[in-house]
Amino acid sequence: MNNLAKLADYFATYPFVRYAFVVGLLIALCASLLGVTLVLKRFSFIGDGLSHVAFGAMAVAAVTGLTNKMIIVLPVTVLSAILLLRTGQNTKIKGDAAVAMISVGALAVGYMLMNVFPSSSNITGDVCSTLFGSTSILTLRKSDVALCVVMAVIVLLMFLLFYHKIFAVTFDESFAQASGINANGYNLLIAVITSMIIVLAMNLVGSLLISALIIFPALSAMRLFRSFRSVIICSAVISVICAGAGIILSILFSTPVGSTIVVSDMAVFFLFSLIARCKGGRHA
Amino acid sequence: MGVQITCKNAALGYENRIVAENLNFSVSAGDYLCILGENGSGKSTLVKALLGLKPQVSGEIVCAHQGIGYLPQQTVVQKDFPASVREIVRSGCLGKTGLRPFYTKDEKALAAQMMEQLGITKLEKCCYRDLSGGQQQRVLLARALCAAKNMLLLDEPVTGLDPRAQTELYEQIAALNKNGITVIMVSHDIAAAVKYASHILQIGKKKQLFFGTAAEYQSSKIGQTFLATGGAEDE
User: Fold this and answer.
1) Is residue B72 part of a domain?
2) Which CATH number belongs to the domain containing residue A225 in this structure?
3) Residues B10, B5: Cα–Cα separation, whole Å
4) pTM (2 decimals)?
5) ipTM of the complex
6) CA nearest A221 in B: which residue?
7) Contacts (Cβ under 8 Å, ≥6 apart) of B48
8) Nearest chain A residue (CA) to B102
9) 8 Å CB contact of A175 and B87
């Protein structure tokens, strides 16, 4: 197989390809785990909103010429996550509008800043790569990889240790609170970790496509599986496989990494929907 | 037959907006108390206070918050939630797990026993969203029983059920009460309240309208008025 040989060659020769692969799989895994909770709690849009906030913060970081953009991007995104969650608790519509407002606002401010204070000659390229993560995953340094591994370990540990509590808080917040679980605390934890995943995932798929990593695997898994545990496991497996396939395909056919991953996630979603329909289950 | 809840001159609500005040009632072990009241009369705030989620503004509420099995109103989120019956019932044991990340054998056995008691053992592996409304309420009731030491707090449990499922659920709850579990139910259904409950607490706009046994309620003026009108909301 010519393609396989080519792939093996890439992996052996270029460390950044290996880095991209590891980081891609880890981010996909974390995003899908959180995705199930976010989708079920009707928080899908928070991922979208936060990613736009991250874009805006990224623009500010670029304009100020910081070498380590994470210093600005991470705290700003985490802070917005907490804020969004706060407003979301009072009334549903207000929270909804707040997400839309913050997300569009951050997008506009970010793009404006990038244009008014251009940090490089190729603004369109900069914007495009922040939005769609076109090449940055191939420029990962060792420290980025280490950060990703640490994050992934944190998310996985959180899921293993608090699995039942996360289930309870997702399924029924009032009951969870009544039985002495700090539901707001867990919501906060989920929001903070979501925003960290989003910041990391910007390298992989860019800020516009992050939501796809979060929601598609969860939605696909929900087509076919009927218990919380199986949905979570299936969602993680789908996400990792799609991310792996997406990265490999993008190397072989020189397509953009982010969109290739998202397209393969979509393909799985349609496949699963089709299977669910054929099985004749009760699905929307 | 110890007193489990005492509420003396309690006022509920927020700093600047009192929802209900001068609440005086008590609940003894084995009682079946029905809390009646129109929308906005502070029923849900009272529920939160009894659960210890929102402290009273003034007055006194003595109540062991832990060990109340709570059956909240259904939320939109739950309607298409992919979770098996077993997962949901077991989550009733979470109050006991603390930081332990798994369930013990005893907790699993307790969940199994509660499913057996409510006749949903054969649904154990079914998905919650595929169940009928009555079955869903049984699942949540089993979960509440796992959390309950000796008291159940049910928030409008029959809402959205068809008449037959309503009767079945009422009978189920009455049976649990006969086995010695204290039941507190928030309800709109005055006829059922009088039929099943031992005590009635009625709250109106900002104040307590009645507290006493179901028999007293039926012979009281306010009880007769409400029974005659079927507890119409505009009353």
Assistant:
1) no
2) 1.10.3470.10
3) 12
4) 0.85
5) 0.85
6) B82
7) B54
8) A164
9) no
